[in-house]
Write a structure and sequence with these properties.
This protein folds into five domains: 4-91, GIY-YIG endonuclease (3-Layer(aba) Sandwich), CATH 3.40.1440; 102-201, no CATH class; 254-374, Nucleotidyltransferase, domain 5; 383-559, Nucleotidyltransferase, domain 5 (2-Layer Sandwich); 570-619, 5' to 3' exonuclease, C-terminal subdomain (DNA polymerase, domain 1), CATH 1.10.150.20. The chain is built from 20 helices and 20 strands. It has helices at 4-9, 36-43, 52-59, 72-86, 134-148, 168-171, 185-199, 204-219, 223-241, 294-308, 325-336, 348-378, 380-390, 441-465, 488-500, 535-569, 576-586, 589-594, 597-601, 608-619, and strands at residues 16-21, 27-33, 63-68, 93-94, 102-105, 114-117, 126-128, 254-262, 265-274, 277-287, 315-317, 341-343, 397-406, 409-419, 422-423, 429-432, 481-484, 507-512, 518-523, 526-529. The strands form four sheets. Strands 13, 14, 15, 16, 17, 18, 19 and 20 form an eight-stranded mixed β-sheet that branches. It has a six-stranded mixed β-sheet with strand order 4-10-9-8-11-12. It has a three-stranded antiparallel β-sheet with strand order 2-1-3. The N and C termini lie far apart (80 Å).
């Protein structure tokens, strides 16, 4: 038994990380401290003013553990790693887990390349980014390769060594074939120099050169070449236009961060400024515990985001002071290999940039709230409409059932699940009918429902016996409403099964019109009409279509497997191993039919006699 009071007395006055566990031993919070003794004790002192989040968290702490570190810096790094790994409930969490694309110029090579990458390493290459659009990076790389004929291959090019022939890019006039020394190292180096200037934002020289080439081609009446240069000019202009905001006073690399919050939802907006140009912006969703301050949320974001991104700018600009400013600067400086500054601008252009980021964050948050509101209307709102129509207090989980067969062949049942108006695919179930011969949908449905609920009841008993009742899910979690694909007959079958099992679950039927479109709900022996324009009606239609789709797809897959199985199994001397070997090699029965005896004989596990037998079977002749 963990005695919290006794364990508090044993805490060392050392820097480190503390880890809070709940009664199920799940990690619910991770924090760092300069002094573990002082920091952890604060959580359990009744005299201290605690936020709602801390009060709630402490009420769930069953035990804690800690890891001693040599410094606060080490504690910070460990805290970041543990939060990322365990995603504790009471830590402010960055929802998005993104990696950003970079443009890599391998200047350490004799004939450098221009590459797409998501990892900026400490090597001899030069990196540009991060960019927020992978497609924009790919377009830029393609443009640079076309303009300056940069090689795309990874061949090792040695002095005096010539390959057999240049590749296709040379013939397409998109590479000068340095692998065959068709261009000197000095000329190629000049092209790379222009690439670097372009990536640094100097587009004027590139545009000037392209215009001159276009003019010359036009004067020589080489209009196709002139069109190529014209298109390249437009591409360069498009890329330049995306980098509209500049900070002419200070051409540094910096990120500008600002937060907007609404309850437990937050949006962090980041502007990426490289060499004084805004190369992109991105927003990140944050899950914020109740009572968490903006400063604490910003601090959590900085730790989580910059623990995962390969590029650290020289400066971070924030909207307000955060607690661990100094130690975070040290940590970021260590990661970057150069001094990093965290600043909170109070006036001038920098303060306006932070304010602009904050406005953007608020705008994204408002748009998200509106989108979520619309989404709730078609999901949770639709569930409320159905509950009101049926006179039920609340519906959270709906299970719908359907049967599919072809004249009684390979009868199957489907169970789909909707929770809060959305499909819960992990709880979908398939049933292969075992006890019914022929096309009897009522008997098949009775089997499916009986198996479903008996299985759930047995699993429930096992979990409750192990005191794991809170882990109910899948078969063990029963619905608030059962929807049958059909009317009166299917509903009565469901009620019959539930009556035998002594389960009280409402059942309704999804009734279709003569055109097989959803018409209404059959409930308590009455068909209830529904407004066809309502969200509730649209949700019922989606559920009915989904149950039908899931059953049909399962039935189709079984039917297909049975067809393949029966055809090949009719051939004497072809057992399971040879059947699988033939399908592995030829992929389909049609390809097996088209194969020659020689091709069949080369198949694993096959011999000449077996090959002749298979060939004869499909060609209806004696060999």
């Amino acid at each position: 038994m963990f005695d919290i009071e006794e364990e508090l007395k044993k805490l060392p006055a050392s820097p480190g990380v503390y880890i809070m566990h709940d009664e199920k031993d799940a990690i619910i919070y991770v924090g760092k401290a300069i002094s573990l003794k002082n920091r952890v004790r604060q959580y359990f002192q009744s005299s201290r003013n605690k936020t709602a989040k801390i009060e709630k968290m402490v009420s769930h702490i069953a035990r804690f553990e800690y890891i001693i570190t040599d410094s606060e810096m080490e504690a910070l790094v460990l805290e970041c790693n543990l939060i990322k790994e365990h995603r504790p409930k009471y830590n402010t969490m960055l929802v998005d887990d993104k990696t950003y694309p970079y443009i890599k110029v391998t200047v350490g090579e004799e004939y450098p390349r221009v590459l797409f990458t998501r990892m900026a390493k400490k090597d001899k290459s030069r990196y540009f980014g991060p960019y927020t659009s992978a497609q924009a990076v790919k377009d830029t790389i393609e443009l640079l390769r076309k303009m300056y004929k940069i090689r795309t291959c990874n061949k090792s090019i040695k002095e005096g060594q010539v390959n057999d022939r240049p590749c296709l890019y040379y013939h397409m006039k998109q590479c000068d074939a340095p692998c065959n020394h068709y261009i000197s190292k000095e000329e190629y180096g000049e092209n790379i120099k222009r690439v670097l200037e372009f990536l640094n934002g100097n587009y004027s020289e590139t545009l000037k050169s392209l215009r001159e080439k276009m003019q010359k081609a036009s004067e020589e009446m080489n209009f196709e070449e002139a069109i190529v240069y014209r298109d390249l000019i437009e591409s360069v202009k498009a890329i330049a236009q995306k980098q509209k905001i500049t900070d002419s006073n200070n051409l540094e690399n910096r990120d500008i961060l600002a937060l907007a919050t609404d309850g437990e939802d937050g949006i962090m907006q980041v502007f990426f400024i490289r060499d004084g140009k805004l190369i992109g912006r991105e927003h990140f969703h944050m899950n914020i515990p109740v009572g968490e301050s903006n400063a604490k949320t910003i601090e959590s974001f900085v730790k989580q985001f910059y623990a995962g991104t390969p590029f650290i700018p020289k400066e971070l600009m924030l909207q307000e002071e955060i607690e661990d400013m100094e130690i975070l600067e040290q940590w970021l400086s260590t990661k970057r290999g150069q001094k990093v500054h965290i600043k909170v601008p109070k006036k001038g252009a920098k303060e306006r940039m932070v304010e602009l980021a904050k406005k953007n964050a608020a705008l994204v948050l408002a748009q998200d709230k509106e989108r979520i509101k619309r989404e709730e209307g078609r999901t949770i709102g639709a569930m409320h409409e159905i509950a009101n129509l049926l006179g039920l207090e609340n519906i959270n989980r709906i299970e719908a059932f359907d049967i599919s067969n072809t004249s009684g062949f390979a009868s199957v049942g489907s169970m789909i699940v909707y929770e809060k108006g959305k499909p819960k695919n992990s709880d979908y179930r398939k049933f292969r009918i075992k006890s019914v011969e022929g096309p009897d949908d009522y008997a098949s449905m009775e089997e499916v429902l009986t198996r479903r609920f008996l299985h759930g009841m047995e699993e429930k008993k096992e979990l409750e016996a192990k005191n794991l009742g809170e882990e109910l899910g899948g078969f063990t979690k029963f619905p608030d409403l059962i929807m049958m694909d059909g009317g009166k007959g299917q509903v009565h079958i469901a009620q019959k099964v539930l009556g035998k099992l002594k389960l009280a679950i409402p059942v309704c039927g999804m009734v279709k019109d003569d055109n097989h479109r959803t018409r209404g709900l059959y409930y308590n022996d009455v068909e209830l009409p529904i407004d066809r324009h309502s969200e509730g009606f649209k949700l019922i239609t989606r559920i009915q279509d989904e149950a039908h789709r899931f059953a049909i797809e399962y039935h189709r897959s079984l039917r297909s497997k049975n067809q393949v199985h029966s055809i090949l199994d009719e051939i004497d001397g072809i057992g399971e191993k040879r059947r699988k070997a033939l399908l592995r090699r030829f992929k389909s029965v049609e390809h097996i039919k088209e194969a020659t005896i020689e091709e069949l004989a080369l198949t694993e596990t096959m011999n000449q006699k077996a090959a002749e037998t298979v060939y004869a079977f499909f060609h209806k002749e004696k060999v």
